Amino acid sequence: MKNLIVANWKMNPVSQEEAKNLFNDIKQRIESATAEVVICPPFVYLPVLKGLTLGAQNCFYEDKGTFTGKISAPMLKDIGVEYVIIGHSEIRKMGETDEKINKRIKSALRAGLKPILCVGENYEQKEKGETETVLKNQLAGALSGVKDAENLTVAYEPVWAISGGDPYKTKELPTAEKVGKTHSYIRNLLADMYSKEFADNIRIIYGGSSNAGNAEDYLKNGKVQGFLVGGASLKPDDFSKIVKLAE
Ligand code: PGA
């Protein structure tokens, strides 16, 4: 299985021209990369960015209808999008529920999109020693009744490690060893929910201030299978270095 590097541009950049420049800069730098790379720009840029695999940052859970402002999984599939991030902590913070995340996963799979399910504890939960319970509940909630989830990726993102824009400014990050243990815990949960064979074939990636300086440690000592990169994905030099390290 190839490692998977996902660029989560969040709500950046603010113009189509900048988006194209950023995209093309990244594209040139990773031309010969053997790791799998997915770029997740804001929805409006998806149709104009060509030449790398695309992902959306969310999708609605109904296919069509009277849902003002929403974008469905079949619409994304139709314009060539392959992946979709679901359950990102920044959306959970705005009131997202496990129930809705579950519906989004189902609609993504129905449409033939590959969901990247984000799970992770916040600072308070970490301090209280609740990380495993949180992960267990998030996975059980998101995957309740979900069959045929071979195309799933799980992104473990400790909320307290997410950069807020500058991946080099965070004061505290989980050690690679800790991330490795948490990934094993997630894989065991998946094995309990599905089967060992299923769990062994699911990629579990890490997100939270990953950058060109710490990626190697997470890969080597945490055995992560890739990254969900926020801040550093807006810096082509950094992002391409992460991609190269993940080959
Ligand atoms: P970060 O963001 O790399 O800037 O911490 C990761 C994410 O939120 O997906």
Walkthrough of the structure:
This protein has 247 residues and is α/β, with parallel strands linked by helices. The chain has one domain: Aldolase class I (TIM Barrel). It contains 10 helices and 8 strands. An 8-stranded parallel beta barrel has the order 1-2-3-4-5-6-7-8, surrounded by 5 helices. β1 (4-8), α1 (16-29) and β2 (36-40) form a beta-alpha-beta unit. It is globular, with a radius of gyration of 17 Å. The model has no long low-confidence stretch (mean pLDDT 96). Bound molecules: 2-phosphoglycolic acid. The site of 2-phosphoglycolic acid has 14 residues, from β8.
Keywords summarizing the entry:
about 250 residues, alpha/beta, TIM Barrel, eight-stranded parallel beta barrel, about 40% helix, about 15% strand, globular, binds 2-phosphoglycolic acid
